């Protein structure tokens, strides 16, 4: 999670990606709709392009739009999850809601391998980090050599 937030969790990154998800791909639209000072989205968009989340596409000579890359599209469940969570738990009356085939979206996690719905009870951590268990760093035992 920390690595993901390092790349995409900045205060202005998520709103910029939200705007691109909504189809607002031009810098002026992104800056206006995020409410950020123009220098902030400029820096964040450049960073998201450098990190491979977005790509710039020319639509007129010297004029560009931003589009999600494959890596950016894989953030779609995260963006939708954050938005639906916020609509339910953090906003009294959300100004926009996501719909899917004419109804408000209710996302769910499904394992693409087995097709089963995922609940927190189904998840099991496996550590692949040397010196770490799922509880954290392995206890270090200090061995004292006899004199």
TrEMBL record:
It comes from the Bacteria. Keywords: DNA-binding, Transcription, Transcription regulation. Pfam families: HxlR. Signal peptide: none annotated. InterPro entries: HTH_HxlR, WH-like_DNA-bd_sf, WH_DNA-bd_sf. Residues 1-94 form the HTH hxlR-type domain. PANTHER family: TRANSCRIPTIONAL REGULATOR, MARR FAMILY, TRANSCRIPTIONAL REGULATORY PROTEIN. This is Winged helix-turn-helix transcriptional regulator.
